[in-house]
Design brief:
mainly alpha, Ferritin, 5 helices, Ferritin-like, DUF892_YciF-like, YciF
């Protein structure tokens, strides 16, 4: 890499990996027998959102005339490994739901940080089309983060009261 644009392309590709991997991880969370219906709905919404976000990143790359790079987002793969490790040890259903929710929050927080950073880069390189796409993704992630925080509060309180 030699230019700021090349760094931007590299990081945009890593964000696309994050969104694609998020779809897979969120599917794993739902298939792990999440029992909380509200959480299931939020996770399903997040799958659709990640699909839209990945498509917007494709739009951004096309606008820039760049072939998508194949770059790995390391942190997102850690989220999968942590959840798979939980599934290997004995746990209560409520604990699994809360851990699934926490995994969804980690995905969301990674994405928010990434989109904030990428939006700054898109502005710096003067790509209005990419800036728009990235701001849409950031706004959606920010909204879902609030839903996850509210659900986390409820599930945490339920778990605490059921085990005291």
């Amino acid at each position: 890499m030699k230019t700021a644009k090349e760094i931007f392309f590299f990081e945009l590709a890593a964000m696309q990996d994050l969104e694609r991997e998020a779809i897979s991880i969120l599917g794993l969370l739902v298939r792990s027998r999440v029992r909380d219906d509200t959480l299931k709905q939020i996770l399903g919404d997040m799958v659709s959102m990640s699909d839209r976000h990945s498509a917007r990143i494709d739009t951004c790359l096309r606008h820039l005339g760049v072939t998508p790079l194949h770059t790995r987002s390391g942190p997102i793969h850690g989220v999968r490994e942590d959840f798979q490790n939980l599934l290997r040890i004995p746990h209560d259903d409520a604990v699994r739901d809360l851990f699934a929710l926490n995994s969804a929050q980690r995905i969301t927080n990674l994405a928010i940080a990434g989109y904030e950073h990428l939006t700054d880069w898109a502005i710096t390189i003067g790509s209005v089309a990419c800036t728009r796409c990235l701001i849409k993704n950031l706004a959606e992630r920010t909204r879902i983060a609030q839903q996850l925080r509210e659900r986390n509060q409820t599930l945490s309180e339920e778990l605490l009261t059921s085990h005291t």
